Amino acid sequence: MKYLIFGLLLMSTTLFAQNDKKAQDILNKISADVKALNSFYIEFNMDISNPATGEKSNDKGTGFVKGNKYYTSFGKNTLICNGLKVWTVVKDEKVTYQADVDSNDDALTPKKIMTIWESGFKSKYEKETTIDGKKVHQISLFPIKPGEVNYHTITLYVTSDSNELYQGILKTKDGGIMKYTITKLEKNKAVEDAKFVYNPQNFPGYQLVKD
């Protein structure tokens, strides 16, 4: 009996290792593809809900990325970054906050959406399934330091045919669910560098607050 138990444990450990490698291979390919692009443009939907609090919202977002620069609009906010400075434009307050770029910042930028797994996570391949009529790989991400974050799992769905990220679902410890779905991806889309610099003329009447 003990040999049977040992054999089952060995099988499950081997299977988990294979799944981890399969997940990592898929994710590494996405990362390599994204980094090989000169620029890209995405459109995405963000759904946030929490059954415990009744919170529910849906927003659409867009984003341009060129190297370490990005410009993204999400809901009523806009984030602009030239690689050195980041400007957060808050429509409701008519205020723009300027700060130096922080590599440890948790802001959800377009590039971070596309490569969120690159640091701080363990990955596990779950299965191939179908969502929204698309065949996808389902991959789970688990934070390496769960005590330092407010979520416990991120589930990714990667298209089986093109190996592109389609959807991510983040589950928080208090029961919240944040789902983002990439509805459009344009690779190497032409964009001027001026797009990534805050221009006060585009936001008349806004107060600029420097950190």
Say what the CATH topology is.
Answer: outer membrane lipoprotein receptor (LolB), chain A
Number of helices: 2
Query: What is the name of the CATH superfamily?
Result: Lipoprotein localisation LolA/LolB/LppX
What's the CATH architecture name? Answer: Clam
If you compute it from the alpha carbons, what radius of gyration comes out, rounded to the nearest whole angstrom? Answer: 20 Å
- How would a textbook summarize the main sheet? 12 strands, mixed
Mean pLDDT comes to: 86
CATH class: Mainly Beta
Structural notes for this entry:
With 211 residues, this protein is α+β, with helices and mostly antiparallel strands. The chain has a single domain, classed as outer membrane lipoprotein receptor (LolB), chain A (Clam), CATH 2.50.20.10. Helix content is 18%, strand content 47%. It has two helices and twelve strands; from the N terminus they run αββββββαββββββ. It has helices at residues 2-35, 110-114, and strands at 40-50, 55-66, 69-74, 77-81, 85-90, 95-100, 121-131, 134-143, 151-159, 165-172, 177-187, 207-210. The protein has a twelve-stranded mixed β-sheet with strand order 7-8-9-10-11-1-2-3-4-5-6-12. A hairpin with a 2-residue loop joins strand 2 and strand 3 (69-74). It is globular. Residues 1-19 have low confidence and may be disordered.
Put the structure in a nutshell:
The protein is an alpha+beta fold and 211 residues long. It has two helices and twelve strands, in the order αββββββαββββββ.
